[in-house]
Amino acid sequence: MKIIVILLLTSYCFAKPFKVALGSCNEQRKVQKIWKYVDKQKPDLWIWLGDIIYGDHFLPSERVEAYNFIKNQPYYQKLISYSDVLGIWDDHDYGYDRADGDYKYKEESKKALFDFLGYDDPLLLSREGIYHQKYYETDAGPVQFIMLDGRSFHYKWKRQMLGKVQWEWLENTIKESRSDIIFISSGINVLSTFHLTLLGNEGWGGYRREKWRLYKLLRKYPNKQFVFLSGDRHFSQVSKKRLSKGNYAYEFMISGMTHNFPFGLPNFRKEAKAITDKNFATMTIDAKEIKLEIWHAREDKKLQEYSIDISRFSKK
Question: What is the model's pTM?
């Protein structure tokens, strides 16, 4: 019995943390040197946070060709040989800048995206939109990744982001979740306090009714840790919002894999300075914390580090 106990403790102490790499805004016509540095991190999971390619007004065949160019990058091929891949779209890979749900090649875009990601789930293929979720086992217990679709049901004139069916799915998915640590991926920023449509600056701030509905939903679950993952703005930044006493939602906005904005935008919820270099990020999840590290996309250089204490949510 003593030997068994020692073996179990040893196994637990040397358990491997779960590592996720993530990024967005990847112009296929620009240098793809980033994959060498992503591969060096050896993530268990890679997450695309939108704008995987820039295919504004592409024909379906041109969109497929652009995805294949990314997929055939040698270090990306190496990455997907050992890492799982999740992804969502934003406007430029979906259709064109700030495209709505009436885009005429919506179904063709969905097929091209799912083929690129390697998705073959019949349920995902048959229903409208690309929203989905997946669990991964970690040292902190099961962790859930919810992947939202901000384009298929998006109508600016209605001030609508998710649509009725996706809202019902999201509410039920969180209600039935077996995880206390939930990542919610959105193609556009959620927590930022700056939004100016006239500058082409999209965000949940432009859809206040839906944003407050989202906050109201999360406040129902004070014993869960929510972390938003987003892209779009061509710089990276950590934000934090109080949901209820002692409980906060965080956002890791990771954007600018191949091109970048020269400065950050006003945001009184920011936790750290904006990263305006070309970048990607990794999240390492163990029983104590989620450690975010933001990395330069074209050299082996760490740009920023930030941690969230999750010890009270951990199931191990």
Answer: 0.94
